Amino acid sequence: MTIEQTLRHATDTLRAAGIDNPRFEARLLLAHVLGCTPSDLLRDAANMRDAAGFEPLLARRAAHEPMAYILGHQPFWSLDFQVSPATLIPRADSEALVEAALTLPHPARVLDLGTGTGCLLLSVLHERPAAFGIGVDVNPAAAALARRNAEALGLAERAAFLGGDWATALMGRFDLVLSNPPYIDTPTIAGLMPEVVGHEPLTALDGGPDGLAAYRIIIRALPGLLTPRGSAVLELGTGQAEAVGALGQAEGFSVTLRDDLSGIPRAIILRMA
Fold first, then answer.
1. Long-range CB pairs of 44-50, under 8 A, 24+ apart, other chains included
2. Directed axis angle between helix 54-62 and helix 3-16, to 10°?
3. Residue-wise over 241-267: b if at least 16 C-beta within 10 A, else e?
4. Cross-strand partners of 272
5. Which residues contact residue 12 at a Cβ distance below 8 angstroms, ignoring those fewer than 6 apart?
6. Which pLDDT does position 51 carry in this prediction?
7. Residue 28 and residue 22: Cα distance in Å, rounded?
8. Is residue 161 predicted with pLDDT exceeding 80?
């Protein structure tokens, strides 16, 4: 088949599977297999003889496996991060946390709880070249992936990654604590998109009956983790700003909110009042 015939076939397959933007996603997959850019496909400049692995990848996407897992990477904060089913896929909404962190005094020591790919920690370290950071994840495979991302981005000398349950294994204090905790309430999980509920790690999604279980653990630990002028920046689920803010205020923190690009409060900054 020609490139156009292959793209038509793939587009039809993805559309029948209920995939949004099927033509665009077909182009991404074919360009990945051929080792070219999507623009090369428009010029018919790619060599179809190298497309032997296309059908298995098309079948994976038609089964609603996330594109990022198929391609093996995802952009975030102008950087490129390796991803795997051990981690959540970085999302543009989470860039609000990086933006919030960059409004704060330059940190010397940064902690990222539930680091996943390391995207939050490594993005901040990329912007703050004098800082050192530690990322913690309960899944050792996630911590190992974050370490590989640090190496690929040239940040390995300023970052360390540990397996652990939130902050229980940590000693010392930090100028900045970051976290994108699991915040989806348990009853909602089953109704999520199949790309999410069927493929992304449940431990990184499920925030307990009200979605606030991880926040309670993290916020209670913050007084023992932060330096006197330190700050925490946590990601929020939609509609959680008031509840999480109340948890922070109960521990003596002041609360500042930052919106994402959709105007939804996405990051909460906690500082000792």
1. 44/2, 44/3, 44/4, 46/3, 48/1, 48/2, 48/3, 48/6
2. 20
3. beebbebbeeeebebbbbebeeeebbb
4. 253
5. 22
6. 73
7. 10
8. yes
Query: Per-residue pLDDT tens for 210-251?
Result: 999 999 999 999 999 999 999 999 999 999 999 999 999 999
pLDDT at position 46 is: 57
Strands 226-235 and 265-272: antiparallel
Token look-up 């543009």 returns 92
Structure tokens at 25: 């996603």
Q: Model confidence over 201-216: pLDDT tens digits?
A: 999 999 999 999 999 9
Q: Residue 110 is encoded by which pair of tokens?
A: 């940064």
How buried is 49 (Cβ within 10 angstroms: 0-12 exposed, 13-18 middle, 19+ buried)? Answer: exposed
Q: Is the pTM of this model over 0.70?
A: yes
**Closest by alpha carbon to 215, among 121, 113, 110?**
113
Question: Which residues are CB-neighbours of 9 under 8 A, at least 6 positions away?
Answer: 1
Distance CA 14, CA 32 (A): 16
